[in-house]
């Protein structure tokens, strides 16, 4: 969590009378930490103490205020310097502002109010800059591979190995995997561990945007380009300039727009809808899909040339059910995270609950696991989640045995059992549905391979 640092003000002034005035004004805010210097050289020697704001007298006994300003800006160009001067020459003020002075205040009857306003404004700007820097650092740390992508299974270690290669170049990355495996999380991890981490990460979900709006969303439009275009709008490629654009669910893109995207990727330039200017774009491209794009190409639903342009470095995210004990590791991580966010105290997961988590096929992957764990944390009345508090509410129920590793005989038993439950133990209806003999079902019932559910 970001906490604002105390405001440390360096005041450079050689006139003892004016020093008293500045001390009075600056001490009106008790949060200010003050340090006074009578010469420019003395101030420069103490810049390593990292002042927040500097007020600088333009006329000093050793060196001019202009020279002091230049040296301060050479040391830290972002440091706000407020010039306080007895000179009213506009030319001087303009020159100092061009050199990077934050403000230029004349010594007169309004100095007090002007100085207070200038200090407050500078303080807000510094606070905002520091908060943005803090958030960028926090995001960067959050998406370190070991912190954002949890697990130690062989399948996820293979992903780690590919991600390490991805961050070393600007190669296009194509991420595949089932819904809920964390494709956007991986895209962010690549961006925030690459050289582009200080620049924007722009995510676009192609499936969530109507076809007629995708071109405008990606490439922008000019005012009046179409009905409702009341002003110029930058597209996502422009917003991602110097950073990364993440095109999620790329397999849902219309064929007509695919050709336009291909041209942008080849030429590295766009033209806004309704515009004539060609705009160069420099953004790394990461795409993701739950579809098999190679099959989509065969079926004529995805352009072959675009497919090869986007393929780049393929990263396939394993389904949660294929990640062995990672399920429990991730569950504990998600539980600790949820407890911390909601001040619930420490909650553990019982052995029986862990076994139940490991047996489930997780059709919704990590996204579904998060939902299950958060609900269990709310339901438990103690400091441990039990088997009873693990509830699966997926669209694909627990009897979706297609996700499990079974023998053909076991699959037969499970299929028949499933339809017996579905059709209220009506053997004839199940036999007709599965196109098998009634005797087969009766034999399984007799051998107790399946059972009538009461």
From TrEMBL:
SMART domains given in the database record: AAA (SM00382), REC (SM00448)
Keywords (A to Z) from UniProt: ATP-binding, Nucleotide-binding, Phosphoprotein
Domain Sigma-54 factor interaction: 149-378
Gene3D superfamilies, sorted: 1.10.8.60, 3.40.50.2300, Homeodomain-like, P-loop containing nucleotide triphosphate hydrolases
Cross-referenced SUPFAM superfamilies: CheY-like, Homeodomain-like, P-loop containing nucleoside triphosphate hydrolases
Response regulatory domain ranges (all copies): 8-122
Protein name from the UniProt record: Sigma-54 dependent transcriptional regulator
Domain of life: Bacteria
Matches recorded under Pfam families: AAA_lid_14, Response_reg, Sigma54_activat
Record carries keyword Phosphoprotein: yes
PROSITE patterns assigned to the protein according to its UniProt record, in alphabetical order: RESPONSE_REGULATORY, SIGMA54_INTERACT_2, SIGMA54_INTERACT_4
Annotated positions of the 4-aspartylphosphate modification: 57
UniProt xrefs under InterPro entries: AAA+_ATPase (IPR003593), AAA_lid_NorR (IPR058031), CheY-like_superfamily (IPR011006), Homeodomain-like_sf (IPR009057), P-loop_NTPase (IPR027417), Sig_transdc_resp-reg_receiver (IPR001789), Sigma_54_int (IPR002078), Sigma_54_int_dom_ATP-bd_2 (IPR025943)
């Amino acid at each position: 969590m970001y906490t604002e640092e105390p405001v440390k003000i360096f005041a450079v002034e050689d006139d003892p009378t004016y020093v008293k005035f500045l001390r009075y004004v600056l001490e009106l805010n008790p949060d200010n930490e003050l340090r006074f210097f009578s010469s420019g050289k003395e101030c420069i020697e103490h810049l390593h103490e990292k002042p927040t704001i500097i007020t600088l007298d333009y006329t000093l006994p050793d060196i001019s205020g202009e020279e002091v300003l230049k040296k301060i800006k050479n040391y830290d160009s972002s440091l706000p310097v407020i010039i306080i001067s007895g000179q009213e020459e506009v030319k001087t003020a303009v020159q100092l502002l061009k050199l990077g002075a934050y403000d230029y205040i004349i010594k007169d009857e309004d100095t007090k109010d002007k100085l207070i306003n200038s200090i407050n404004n500078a303080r807000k700007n510094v606070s905002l800059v520091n908060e943005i820097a803090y958030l960028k650092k926090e995001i960067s740390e959050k998406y370190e591979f070991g912190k954002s992508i949890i697990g130690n299974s062989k399948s996820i270690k293979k992903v780690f190995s590919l991600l390490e290669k991805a961050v070393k170049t600007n190669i296009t990355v194509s991420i595949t995997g089932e819904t809920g495996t964390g494709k956007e999380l991986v895209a962010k991890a690549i961006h925030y561990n690459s050289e582009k981490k200080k620049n924007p990460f722009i995510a676009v979900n192609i499936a969530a945007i109507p076809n007629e709006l995708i071109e405008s969303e990606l490439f922008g439009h000019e005012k009046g380009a179409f009905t409702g275009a009341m002003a110029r709008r930058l597209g996502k490629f422009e917003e991602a300039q110097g950073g990364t654009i993440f095109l999620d669910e790329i397999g849902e893109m219309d064929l007509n727009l695919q050709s336009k995207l291909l041209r942008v990727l080849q030429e590295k330039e766009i033209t806004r809808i309704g515009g004539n200017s060609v705009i160069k774009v420099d953004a790394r491209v990461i795409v993701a899909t739950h579809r098999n794009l190679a099959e989509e190409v065969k079926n004529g639903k995805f352009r072959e040339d675009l497919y090869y342009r986007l393929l780049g470095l393929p990263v396939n995210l394993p389904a949660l059910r294929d990640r062995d004990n990672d399920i429990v590791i991730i569950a504990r991580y998600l539980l600790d995270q949820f407890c911390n966010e909601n001040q619930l105290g420490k909650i553990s997961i019982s052995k029986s609950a862990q076994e139940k988590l490991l047996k489930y096929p997780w059709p919704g992957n990590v996204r579904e696991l998060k939902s299950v764990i958060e609900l269990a944390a709310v339901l438990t009345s103690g400091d441990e989640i039990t088997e009873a508090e693990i509830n699966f509410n997926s669209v694909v129920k627990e009897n979706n045995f297609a996700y499990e590793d079974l023998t053909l005989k076991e699959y037969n038993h499970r299929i028949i059992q499933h339809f017996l439950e579905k059709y209220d133990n009506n053997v004839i209806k199940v036999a007709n549905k599965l196109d098998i003999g009634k005797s087969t079902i009766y034999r399984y019932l007799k051998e107790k391979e399946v059972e009538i559910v009461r």
